[in-house]
Design a protein that fits this description.
It holds the Pfam family F-box-like. InterPro entries: F-box-like_dom_sf, F-box_dom, Gal_Oxase/kelch_b-propeller, Kelch-typ_b-propeller. With 474 residues, the chain is mostly beta strands. It has 2 domains: 81 residues, Monooxygenase (Up-down Bundle); 360 residues, Kelch-type beta propeller (Neuraminidase). It has 7 helices and 30 strands. An 8-stranded mixed β-sheet has the order 20-21-22-24-1-30-27-26, with no helix packed on it. A 5-stranded mixed β-sheet has the order 15-16-18-19-23, with no helix packed on it. Helix 3 runs antiparallel to helix 4 and helix 5 crosses helix 6.
């Protein structure tokens, strides 16, 4: 990638060895574009260096918009286009945007809530759920001061206004009972929630479905209903991780089960077409990730599900990475091996209670969490799964998993400085350029009612990828 972007600014052009009689030279531009869109980026770079005409073609933002759709997905590209206002309907500089996404080195933070305002705000909490669905933020449950659970649902419409103070609306229709440490994912226009712990320490294994509806007359409504999963369900738990892998499947892993024991099992929920029922089954593979809680699962289209971090059975805080490969034949866990000592500032990577969010470019943005001494973090890391080699490329020396290099990068943070936090929640909008972060446990002033200075946070802030071009700032 570096070679290509050096070539982009070069004033010299490689001499062409392609004769005028070569069939490829005579192809129409549309046909050439079709061919170029089938090439991997490295091959596209080589093609661009053969002659002036091909260099011009490969610099076309029309071509690069199509490449971005291929690499990032149409949902992200369309959301990015709708959220950026350009003058006179100018074409976005897609090649430059692609470059900046691939070389991302910083994010900026912006405050989106004011605890002193007169607006209704969700109470401070941690171990809740926060999701972006139907252009809305949806917040449910969590734990708060005094070890109490919460059973409230809050909704805030985002639209295209990304930096204003948001107006939260409390919803009181068909909600699940109070809990924290539950997991909630988005599948299409639906929310799917599983498990959690109540303030009596009871673990739960119920499954709920929520639906947000926007109406001009009624405003925002959200209804929860208990999902019929028949007789089979995962054992009760909290502090587990979850994600979806397609338009009808939920995956959960680990968590804290009965008697406080950490779990290492993986379960799959297949939902019916109308989301009225579902079927749970356990996925048993060898190897598989060790038992843990407070970790993350994130699905990356075309790659699989990435598991990172958490707290292990021995109360140790982990930094291992696992990939659940998804294919039509099977689902299989593979550990991704890397050397923590080879990563600049890598000593801060092990964590529990962090967030891991899929961002533009198909990478994970890791934020916050805490280490084994309960020191909370405010750092941002990118995990680039494109650096993970294919299973076929693994060496016999690494038979335990796949060896990956250069997949971690620490980002600089600009703008607003939020508190260090853990067990917060984060979600991205459809573009993958903007993340919303709410709540968590933060370090506070030591008071008699606050053991070890712990306090719960009720702040909402926005994290934006720092992307700049000549005509837009994302």
């Amino acid at each position: 990638m570096t070679t290509f972007f050096m070539a982009e600014t070069s004033t010299s052009t490689t001499s062409s060895n392609i004769g005028s009689s070569s069939p490829i030279v005579k192809l129409a531009q549309d046909h050439l574009f079709t061919i170029l869109l089938l090439l991997p980026i490295d091959s596209l770079i080589s093609f661009a260096r053969t002659c002036k005409r091909f260099r011009s073609l490969t610099s076309s933002d029309t071509l690069w918009e199509s490449i971005c759709r291929r690499e990032w997905g149409s949902t992200s590209v369309d959301a990015l286009k709708s959220s950026i206002n350009t003058k006179n309907n100018q074409q976005l500089p897609w090649m430059r945007l692609y470059k900046q996404v691939s070389q991302l080195d910083s994010v900026s933070c912006h405050k989106l809530s004011d605890p002193d305002s007169e607006l209704m705000l969700p109470t401070p909490r941690a171990s809740h759920c926060l999701n972006f669905v139907s252009d809305c933020l949806v917040l449910f449950g969590g734990g708060c001061e005094g070890g109490r659970d919460l059973d409230d649902t809050w909704v805030a419409y985002i639209g295209n206004d990304f930096q204003r103070m948001l107006k939260w609306q409390k919803v009181n229709s068909g909600i699940p009972n109070g809990r924290f440490g539950h997991a909630c994912i988005v599948i299409g226009d639906y929310l799917v929630l599983f498990g959690g712990i109540n303030d009596r320490g009871i673990r739960q294994n119920d499954t709920w479905v929520g639906k947000v509806v926007l109406s001009e007359n009624l405003g925002i409504t959200l209804s929860w209903r208990l999902l019929d999963v028949r007789s089979i369900a995962p054992p009760p738990r909290g502090a587990h991780a979850a994600c979806c892998i397609d338009k009808s499947t939920m995956v959960i892993h680990g968590g804290i089960g009965l008697y406080g024991l950490r779990m290492g099992d993986t379960w799959i929920l297949e939902l019916s077409e109308n989301f009225c029922s579902g079927t749970w089954r356990e996925l048993v593979t060898h190897p598989s990730p060790p038992a843990r809680s407070g970790h993350t699962l994130t699905c990356i289209e075309g790659t699989g599900i990435v598991l990172f971090g958490g707290r292990g059975s021995g109360y140790d805080v982990l930094h291992d990475v696992w990939l659940l490969q998804v294919s039509e034949v099977e689902l299989k866990w593979i550990q991704i091996l890397y050397n923590l000592q080879d990563i600049p500032a890598g000593v801060s990577l092990p964590r529990v209670g962090h967030s891991a969010t899929l961002i533009l470019g198909g990478r994970l943005l890791i934020y916050g969490g805490e280490d084994s001494q309960r020191h909370r973090k405010d750092d941002f890391w990118v995990l680039d799964v494109s650096k993970i080699p294919s299973n076929k490329a693994q060496s016999p020396l690494n038979s335990r998993g796949l060896q990956a290099n250069n997949m971690w990068k620490m980002l600089k943070a600009k703008g607003y400085k939020p508190y260090r936090r853990s067990f917060h929640r984060a979600c991205a909008d459809h573009s993958g350029c903007r993340l919303y972060v709410f709540g968590g446990m933060v370090d506070g002033l030591l008071q008699p009612a606050e053991a070890y200075g712990l306090r719960f946070d009720g702040e909402l802030f926005l994290v934006k990828l720092e992307l700049e071009t000549d005509i837009v700032r994302c």
